[in-house]
Amino acid sequence: MSNSPRIIATTASVALLAAAGAGTAVVALDFVDSPQSQTELEASSTTQLPTPQDDRTTVYRAPQDDPHDDDYQGHSGEIQPAPPTTTFNGGQGQKAPNNTSKSS
Amino acid sequence: MITASVKTWKTELLLSVRTAPDPALASALQTFLDSEVTRLDRLASRFRDDSELAIVNARPGQWVEVSWSFVTVLTAALDAARMTGGLVDPTMGRAIKAAGYDRWAGQATSTSPDVHRGKWRGVGIRPGRGQAQVRIAAGTELDLGSIAKAWLADRLATTVYRAGHEVCANMGGDIRVIAHRPWTVWADPGIPGVDSRPVDLVDGGLATSGVGKRVWDGGHHIIDPRTGSPAGTPWVSVSAVAATAAHANAATTAGVVLGDAGPEWMSRQGIDARFVALDEVATTHRWPQEVAA
C-alpha cells in the first residue's frame, strides 16, 4: 500500500481547493494537520473524499482533548517580538493623538 | 504629515502617512479609512444585528455561511488564542455580556454567566456554498472586539505602505508602523501622574490594554478565560511592542489577564512591555526600567 497520509491528505487538499478556490489554502493545511481526519481517510482507500459540505471536512485545530490546549504556563511563545530596529531612545516625535497608544 | 480620522466604536481611529501636504492623497486616505472601518463593522460588530458575527452568534452549533473576509478576522482572533495558550479567547462573548459590558455600552442584554474555557478550539471553518462557513460551539458567542482594531491597524498599514507611503495606523490605541526611518509612538497608561513612554518603531506594533476606561460597577471588559469573569489584576495598563499590532494586542491582553504573573510571562516570550499599577511600574526585556512616580 502506498497510501501514505501525506499523499492522501494532499489529494484531499487539492479537491478542497478545486471545490472552493485558492482562498481555502489555510483550511486545507489544517486538514492535513488533523490526525483524526487522516485516520478517517486511511481507513479505506475507497472512501469517498469529503465534500465541502461534509462536517468531517475541517477543524481549525487538532483534537480538543489535548491536555496542553490551554497550557499558557508551558507555552513556548509564538508572539513575535518587535524587530531589532525598535528602540526606546525617545526619538524626535512629539506625543500626539495619532501616535499615542492608550487603552480604549 | 497627512492624517485621516474616524470617530467610532467609542474611540478614534487615525491613519497617518509621512509626506508633504497633498489634498488628493488626503482625500484618498480618508476614503480608504472610511471604507475599511465600515467593512469591518459589517463583519465583526457585536452591536449590530446584521453583522456576520451576529449571524454566527445567533446560530451556535450550526454551520453558518460567511465571507472569506470574516474568516480572515476570525483567524486573527484564533491565532491570538493559540499564541497565548488560550489567555485571549474570542469565544468569551457570553462571559463579557454577563460581566455587564453590554449595559455599560448602552445595550440591554440578559445573559447568564457562563464559563467555557478553551472553546476557541471548537470553532470550525470550512468552504461553503458561496465562500466559507463557520461553526461555533453550542453555548458560546464570538467577541472579536479585542483583536479587530489591531487587525485593522495591520491591514491598513500594510496596504498603505505597499502603495509607497511610510505609515502609522492607530486604531484606538492599537498601533502599527511601517516606515523607512524611526517613527516615535507613545505608550500612555492613562493614569494621572504617570508619564507616557516613547518607542521608536520602524516596522512594528504597539498596543495598550487596561481596565481603566471600559470599567463599570463590578467589572471591566477584559475577561479571564480561566474563570469567565473580569480579570483580577493589579495592572491598570499594560503596553507592549511586537512584530505587528495584532501580536502586541494579544500580548497586552494576556498580560492583564495574568495579573501578578504577567511580567514573568511576558519576559519568557521575549516581549518588550510596560506594566503600570497605581503604585508600581514593571518593565520587561528591552523596555527601560523605571520607578513609579
Can you tell me about this structure?
By secondary structure, chain A is an all-alpha fold. Chain A has a domain at 1-64. Chain A is built from three helices and one strand; from the N terminus they run αααβ. In chain A, α1 (5-20) runs antiparallel to α2 (25-33). The longest helix of chain A is centred in the first third of the chain and has 16 residues, at 5-20. Chain A is elongated. The N and C termini of chain A lie far apart (59 Å). Residues 1-67 of chain A have low confidence and may be disordered. By secondary structure, chain B is an alpha+beta fold. Chain B folds into two domains: 2-22 and 146-284, T-fold; 52-76 and 89-143, no CATH class. Helices cover 32% and strands 28% of the residues of chain B. Chain B has helices at 23-44, 52-57, 68-83, 93-98, 101-104, 145-162, 245-258, 262-269, and strands at 2-8, 11-17, 64-66, 124-127, 132-135, 167-171, 174-188, 197-210, 215-216, 219-220, 223-224, 229-230, 237-242, 272-276, 281-284. In chain B, strands 1-2-6-7-8-13-14-15 form an eight-stranded antiparallel sheet. In chain B, strands 3-5-4 form a three-stranded antiparallel sheet. A two-stranded antiparallel sheet of chain B has the order 9-10. In chain B, a hairpin with a 4-residue loop joins β11 (223-224) and β12 (229-230). Chain B is globular. Chain B starts with a strand and ends in a 9-residue tail after the last strand. Mean pLDDT of chain B is 87; it is low at 108-114.
Helical run tally of chain B: 8
How many runs of DSSP E, i.e. beta strands of chain A? 1
Please tally the β strands of chain B and state the result.
15
Measured by residues with Cβ under 8 Å of the partner chain's Cβ, the largest interface is: A-B, 51 and 90 residues
Number of domains of chain B: 2
CATH topology of the largest domain in chain B: T-fold
- In the predicted model, the low-confidence regions of chain B spanning at least 5 consecutive residues are 108-114
* Backbone CA Rg of chain B: 19 Å
Residue ranges of chain A: pLDDT <50 for 5 or more in a row?
1-67
Helical region count of chain A? 3
Shape of chain B: globular
CATH architecture of the largest domain in chain B: Roll
The whole-number mean of residue pLDDT values of chain A reads 55
Question: How large a portion of the residues of chain A is in β-strands, by DSSP E?
Answer: under 5%
Give the biggest beta sheet of chain A: none
Provide the CATH superfamily of the largest domain in chain B. Answer: ApbE-like domains
Report helical residue fraction of chain A.
25-40%
